[in-house]
Design goal:
By secondary structure, the chain is α+β, with helices and mostly antiparallel strands. It is built from 1 helix and 9 strands, in the order H-E-E-E-E-E-E-E-E-E. The chain is 16% helix and 48% strand.
Length: 135
């Protein structure tokens, strides 16, 4: 009894699988595989620092080194889209956290809109986070 035909079949199958994997390239995540989360859902009226976490939803792990290129804050949740404020990104205090300084001019619902690019990924991660400004 010889095992040579079985060994040759296995070798061919393995080679085909390896070639297929090489041609398809590394697995990429979709923008929907990531999300921003507010660390707190309330902030005091006036000067405020908002902190958000960027998470890979597949692993639950924080995402570091994202490039935030789009940011806006407005009162859209209270039907006042035109009520905006300045928004400046601050240095991160820990991996996966992104901080923004703003001035919340009045109490009510606010929306923080963010857009980011991730290293090694195609597409844009974007999210709109709603929180409350309280007196």
């Amino acid at each position: 009894m010889t095992f040579q035909p079985v060994a040759q079949s296995l070798a061919r199958a393995l080679a085909a699988a390896l070639v297929g994997a090489a041609l398809s390239g590394p697995a990429r995540a979709a923008p929907a595989d990531y999300r921003f989360e507010l660390v707190t859902r309330e902030a005091k009226v006036g000067e405020a620092v908002l902190t958000v976490r960027l998470v890979d939803t597949r692993s639950g792990q924080p995402v570091t080194d994202a490039v935030i290129f789009a940011k806006r804050i407005d009162m859209a949740p209270d039907s006042m889209d035109e009520m905006t404020s300045t928004l400046a990104q601050l240095p991160s205090t820990e991996p996966g956290l992104y901080r923004f300084k703003t001035k919340l001019t009045m109490a009510g619902g606010w929306r923080l809109s963010l857009g980011a690019k991730l290293q090694g990924e195609t597409g844009t991660v974007s999210d709109k986070l709603v929180f409350r400004a309280v007196p």
